[in-house]
Amino acid sequence: MNEELGGKFLDELFDNDTKAIRAFMTRVETISRGKSSSLSDVVDLLNSLRWNTKLPKMITEQAGGAFDVLNGCLNEIGHPAAITQQDIFAPKKGPDNVYDLYVVTWHLVIVTLLNYGKDFDATPPWFMPLARIAEQLKNEMNDISETELDAFVNRDMHVMDEVWKTHGLTVEEVAGWVGRFMLNGHHRMQPNTFWHIHFHLNDFLKAISDNMVEKQGYSLDTKRGQEQAEECYSDLKHVILQYELPDIEELIDQCHQGIAKQSPGRKGKKLSDEFDRVRGALPASMYETIVYYSKEPMELKRSRDRDFKKPWVDGGDHRTSRNAFIRKAATVDADILRKHGMQESEIEYMQNTGKIAYNANGEQYPLTVEHVNDREYGGTNTVDNMILLHGDINKMIDRLKKIQLASWPKGQKEGWMYTWKPIENEDGSLPLVLDEPIV
User: Is 0.70 surpassed by the pTM of this model?
Assistant: First the structure.
């Protein structure tokens, strides 16, 4: 394939002049004997010549023309070397959950360290911001035991090794994936983690911008170099921000269209009417939003399901326990429970046992512990991501999800989805108990 593309490139570059092509190839063989280079190397070389302001205009123009021709040839077969800046920093596909993004970023950290002989001081400027992003992503998964998490990651590192070899992934592409993920990051992780990664992502992009400008022959010590770096950074941010959330009404229209296609006739109309009816019952303490649906890896699901159901044990680790959350919620947001009619003895029962209380008639309150950021939307299993609410509200949220899944084409497993989220407290924190009737 390389020979085929190379021949096409030379034909176009030398206008099918076979004599000129043979002379060119003789020169190439002379200067490259004993060396090897890839098409990616050639593209990088031509691009650097194209933007080198120290070279005569004639050379930069010829290099630019050659770059465009070769890039076009590579693009025909989807070669990684042909990926444009737009494609790199606004990828249409990438990690859709915290775990997968962590594996990708951590793999690049390890590969970079090995390439530089584990010498931190010799690593590129973008290395430390990347390492800090990976660290924050790992912290977000502290609901998984470190032993289990390490086992999952070590297994998937071997997979990433192969992906890196066959798909020619770059640091720029990883940056694009992080940026894409962060556009909806506040629905996928805790606020503290989100803002830390947001901060490090800016440093990551700035370092990449500086690196790209230096490759073009500019010095960052000059005013011109600094201006180019700032312009490059601005361009990268702009490209990433083009991946905005879909409009809610447009997404719902797509849902109705999908229902009509997947379930034509009376059944489809019934589902559409039900969706609109449930949507119209939005509780006053919640708001409409859009999140990205993607099921978590099965191993993490099993681990989190087990820990979520783990009973309260004095002195135990209860960061992920449903019982521990109920004790905390009944203590911190006891006023909300009182407001909606729960008695002091019932609140104390929940504080002491971590179980849902029973009313004076011996009936258990219809409350359930759910995730604020559903795990299928990238949420984790920590008590900071849980909320106590009426079971009927949770059933409505679940019904909205199932109707939308029914509207998707057969085989679709992920995509944008409409849902409800609790309105934050005045201090920006999330309520532990939803301020709605509990009976």
Answer: no
